[in-house]
Specification:
mainly alpha
């Protein structure tokens, strides 16, 4: 039978490595040169859609 302490330790370690790998994947995706145009358009769209000051 598997002990509770082993399962807790395994799940904490797996979760840590999973989050580290996910963070690295997100940074790599965000830094890819092929995504620059998409991110630049998203950054500028907030200014294009601005209708003017509130009245």
């Amino acid at each position: 039978m598997i002990e509770h302490a082993f399962l807790v330790g395994f799940s904490k370690s797996f979760g840590l490595f999973y989050l580290i790998a996910l963070s690295i994947a997100v940074v790599i995706y965000a830094m890819k040169p092929s995504n620059k145009k998409q991110f630049d358009e998203a950054a500028q769209s907030i200014f294009r859609d601005e209708a003017g000051p509130w009245r």
